[in-house]
């Protein structure tokens, strides 16, 4: 936004500084990114859904997915080092391809982060609190705990618990990133402790002992002494030979979390020494998640076997009532119950609570920074960029994101209109735009590339361009997977319109949301033009700090 500059010539932004403060250090940023992947939740989704497809090799699918996620992570890492500002892809795409493309790319992520606000907030109850309460109920015989677990897993329970979580998170964010990161890091320690305990228990106790203890504890919950046999029998699960197509398609469940390792790029203006650490922290997050994910998948698969894990996946939450369970037991629940030790079970169940919702903070925080970036460039009302002088946080944007996340939570738990995977195809459209920006940056902004800390070349080719091209290929492969996964909720088949919004209708919605940013930019440019303001001037420079 152009304003007169009190003796210093014209100014192109709404103010000379964002008011945000660089509070995130190396480990803060790494943990922030790892939390967005949510290692425990990633593996829980793998065990709960992927075996039911048939012939899926879980470790191989995880490795394939990591290989596809790495180029995009490296692309974001390089761009975050070149342009260390809050707003992520909005900054990168708008400064390389142009403002209209930047708004289209980033508005897409903002809308999907709003819509996805309901998913992890609901997961807190269904993947975190409900399993924890079932674990305690099995060991103590306390029926009140079991009833609370059943309520937590209900639509009402998920909404109430999720809404409280959103309110608490927004409150923490308002108090400042320093406060949030201190809380985040402590809770991350509990989550990692639980992860280590799962691996240790699953490896050190024999499969026979683990399954015997598990059967005993599940019998206490259901009253069925043959509970493990009943799970396998009722599911009708039959092991199938290796299926490469299903192994590739089911990457959709892994990419749901692993594909978002670059959360710190969206708070780039609040990361210390961002130009130095982002290039390593963001792709390093994928490697960290891959290593721990493989350890969890290997140890738990060894402990409980293909038949039981496949049966639980095939029954799912909807079929669990056939054996007297309110929901399918999560993988960490199996280990906790199989440990036969209340203290170990408590630490595992409690720690995994903090994996269950861990990508939600990034969604709210990152989207609020996107709103700030729009306002600073003059695309949206300046109130969205208002930063508290006391806390150095954009209170208005945070409250808006919190309120919209609660609305999304209600849609997710009370209606059939939003499936867990439906929006990742849309996110991938943005990832492709970011990758294209990386390919073209050395040619469209050569001075920016030459002065950057990643002005590397392979012969005559800029490394950032090569990595960006690899990322485009990886994103296209993942789009193929989502369009071919029968459970993704999105399809290119127009006949699915007869069945409701999921399917081809959701494909149209993904494309429509992506294009809507162009409309918003056009309206903003027209409105500012009537005020005598040339919006394009702001995009010739990197945004203010």
TrEMBL record:
Keywords: Cell membrane, Membrane, Transmembrane, Transmembrane helix
Source superkingdom: Bacteria
Primary location: membrane
Protein name listed in UniProt: APC family permease
GO MF term list: transmembrane transporter activity
Gene Ontology CC annotations of this record: plasma membrane
Xref: InterPro entries: AA/rel_permease1, APC_superfamily
Membrane topology classification: Multi-pass membrane protein
Subcellular location: Cell membrane
């Amino acid at each position: 936004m152009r304003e007169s500059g009190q003796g210093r010539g014209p100014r192109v932004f709404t103010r000379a500084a964002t008011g945000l403060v660089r509070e995130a250090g190396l480990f803060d940023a790494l943990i922030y990114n790892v939390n967005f992947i949510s290692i425990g939740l990633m593996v829980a989704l793998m065990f709960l859904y992927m075996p039911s497809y048939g012939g899926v090799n879980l470790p191989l699918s995880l490795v394939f997915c990591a290989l596809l996620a790495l180029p995009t992570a490296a692309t974001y890492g390089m761009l975050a080092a070149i342009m260390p500002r809050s707003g992520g892809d909005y900054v990168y795409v708008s400064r390389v391809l142009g403002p209209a493309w930047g708004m289209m790319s980033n508005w897409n992520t903002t809308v999907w982060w709003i819509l996805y606000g309901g998913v992890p907030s609901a997961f807190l109850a269904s993947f975190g609190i409900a399993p924890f309460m079932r674990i305690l109920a099995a060991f103590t015989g306390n029926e009140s705990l079991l009833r609370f677990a059943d309520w937590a897993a209900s639509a009402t329970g998920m909404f109430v618990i999720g809404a409280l979580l959103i309110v608490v998170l927004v409150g923490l964010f308002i108090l400042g990133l320093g406060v949030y990161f201190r809380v985040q890091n402590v809770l991350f320690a509990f989550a990692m402790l639980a992860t280590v305990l799962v691996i240790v228990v699953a490896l050190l106790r024999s499969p026979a002992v683990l399954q015997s203890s598990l059967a005993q504890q599940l019998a206490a919950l259901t009253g069925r002494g043959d509970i493990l046999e009943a799970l396998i029998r009722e599911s009708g699960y039959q092991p199938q030979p290796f299926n490469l197509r299903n192994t590739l398609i089911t990457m959709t469940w892994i990419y749901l979390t692993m594909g978002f390792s670059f959360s710190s790029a969206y708070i780039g203006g609040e990361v210390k020494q961002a130009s130095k650490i982002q290039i390593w922290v963001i792709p390093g997050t994928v490697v960290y998640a891959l290593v721990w994910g493989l350890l969890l998948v290997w140890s738990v698969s060894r402990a409980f076997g293909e038949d039981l894990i496949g049966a639980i996946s095939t029954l799912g939450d909807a079929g669990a009532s056939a054996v007297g369970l309110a929901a399918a037991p999560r993988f960490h629940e199996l280990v906790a119950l199989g440990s036969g030790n209340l203290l170990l079970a408590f630490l595992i169940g409690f720690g995994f609570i903090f994996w269950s919702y861990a990508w939600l903070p990034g969604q709210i925080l990152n989207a609020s920074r996107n709103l700030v970036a729009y306002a600073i460039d003059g695309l949206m009302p300046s109130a969205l960029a208002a930063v508290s002088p006391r806390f150095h946080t954009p209170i208005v944007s945070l409250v808006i994101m919190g309120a919209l996340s609660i609305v999304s939570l209600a849609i997710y738990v009370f209606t059939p209109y939003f499936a867990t995977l439906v929006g990742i195809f849309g996110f991938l459209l943005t990832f492709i735009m970011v990758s294209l920006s990386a390919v073209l940056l050395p040619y469209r902004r050569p001075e920016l590339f030459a002065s950057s800390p990643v002005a590397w070349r392979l012969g005559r080719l800029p490394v950032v361009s090569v990595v960006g091209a690899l990322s485009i290929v990886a994103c296209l492969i993942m789009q193929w997977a989502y369009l071919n996964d029968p459970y993704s909720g999105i399809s290119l088949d127009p006949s699915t319109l007869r069945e409701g919004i999921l399917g081809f209708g959701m494909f149209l919605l993904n494309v429509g949301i992506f294009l809507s940013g162009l409309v918003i930019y056009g309206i903003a440019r027209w409105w500012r033009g009537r005020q005598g303001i040339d919006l394009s001037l702001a995009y010739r420079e990197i945004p203010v700090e």
